[in-house]
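Hi all, posting the design record for the shared folder.

TITLE: backbone redesign
STEP: 1 of 1
STRUCTURE INPUT:
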């Protein structure tokens, strides 16, 4: 019943999921190959899938380090199994609602060098925080801990408002139904999502639908209903 309701809200949920994974691959590849990032902090990493951050980063540099963060028991079980024997990548249990706990975690401090640029990945996690949980302050705490040259990448549910008014009306209804029956979800407007980047400099092409962020010819699932309901962007700390 829950799965059926979810498909009613976002009929192309599977396509959206594949588009998110394709975006992850492009972002991590860019950060590793072009921005020279060699360490990543992936918060709200989710269940391991066919391509994960460390696998993409290792295509560029097998020594690249990754710390995954999640608080879902299923993610923790599967993640630990996936990373067994991998000396460069690790998964810790923590919640984005406590950013200081993440930043001060012994494993994070051991694995990541906060004097060197870090790739902070917040993919599809901030939109699960409601406004009362102050996601802006959480994002700011994480940003402030990063050294110069670091990058922040975000995927977030989008309410396109006046840019696409018909879609906006649909997502407002979807947000209500989603939060009543499926968990948590907040479709924010462009300016609200941009605020999560603070004073970091958005790199080209800016904050855009997933398929528009530096397409590289890789086959990407065709989004229809979700095309104008999700935005992605990457920004650099000066």
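Okay, here is what came back for every position:
SEQUENCE:
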């Amino acid at each position: 019943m829950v799965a059926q309701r979810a498909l009613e809200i976002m009929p192309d949920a599977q396509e959206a999921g594949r588009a998110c994974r394709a975006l992850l691959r492009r972002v991590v590849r860019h950060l590793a190959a072009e921005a020279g990032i060699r360490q990543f902090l992936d918060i709200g990493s989710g269940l391991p899938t066919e391509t994960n951050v460390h696998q993409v980063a290792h295509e560029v540099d097998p020594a690249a380090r990754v710390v995954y963060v999640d608080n879902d028991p299923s993610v923790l079980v599967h993640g630990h199994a996936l990373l067994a024997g991998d000396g460069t990548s690790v998964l810790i249990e923590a919640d984005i609602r406590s950013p200081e706990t993440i930043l001060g975690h012994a494993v994070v401090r051991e694995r990541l060098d906060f004097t060197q640029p870090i790739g902070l990945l917040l993919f599809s996690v901030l939109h699960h925080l409601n406004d009362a949980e102050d996601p802006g302050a959480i994002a700011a705490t994480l940003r402030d801990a990063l050294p110069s040259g670091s990058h922040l990448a975000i995927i977030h549910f989008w309410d396109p408002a006046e840019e696409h008014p018909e879609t906006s009306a649909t997502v407002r209804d979807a947000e209500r139904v989603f939060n009543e029956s499926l968990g948590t979800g907040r479709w924010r407007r462009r300016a609200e999502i941009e605020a999560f980047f603070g004073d970091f400099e958005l790199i080209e092409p800016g904050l855009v639908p997933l398929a528009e962020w530096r397409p590289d010819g890789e086959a990407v699932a065709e989004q229809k209903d979700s095309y104008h309901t999700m935005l992605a962007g990457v920004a650099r700390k000066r």
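COMMENT: The longest helix spans residues 13-33.
Let me know if anyone wants the other runs.
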